[in-house]
Amino acid sequence: MSLIAAAALLVAADGPVMIVSAPEADCTMGYEELVSGEGREALRAIEQCGAAASDDPALQINHGVALARVGEFDAARESFTAAVRHADRFDLETASGDWVDSRVLARKGLAMLDSGKFRGYEALAVR
User: Fold this and answer.
1) CA distances from 78 to 51, 55, 63, 84, 99 (A)
2) In this predicted model, what pLDDT tens digit does every residue of 37-46 receive, in sequence order?
3) N or C terminus of the chain with fewer C-beta within 10 Å?
């Protein structure tokens, strides 16, 4: 995974949507699938990333998003928590040009779970 990942903050009809991408990654990380609303396909794509998915904050965030999108909220919480606790931190650029720490984005995913914002929304996703 690259040391710098890019994140795009999108706006959906009902509220904010955050998409995170890491353009230098070796796998698709489920980005396209999450953007198009295909949570189960995103999970398959992320699982194809193999062992990297378990130790990559960007993949952990996408995994959390995909899990939340298919209603597996406890597992999503585990993925976001892993990204928060990861030893490495990565700067992510939002569509507005702001740079955001990967842990902040993972915490946002946790907050979205806590507030129920994953229901009916797009969510965090990493490319």
Assistant:
1) 16, 13, 10, 10, 24
2) 888 999 999 8
3) N
Architecture of domain 4-115: Alpha Horseshoe (1.25)
Query: Could you give the CA distance from residue 62 to residue 74 in angstroms, rounded to a whole number?
Result: 15
Longest dimension (CA), the chain: 36
9-117-65 Cα angle (round to 5): 65
If one counts every other C-beta atom within 10 angstroms of the C-beta of residue 13, the result is 7
pLDDT tens digits, 51-110:
666 788 888 888 998 999 999 999 999 999 999 999 988 876 544 566 778 899 899 999
Would you say 58 and 25 are in contact if contact means Cβ atoms under 8 Å apart?
Answer: yes
Residue 107 contacts residue 1 (beta carbons within 8 Å): no
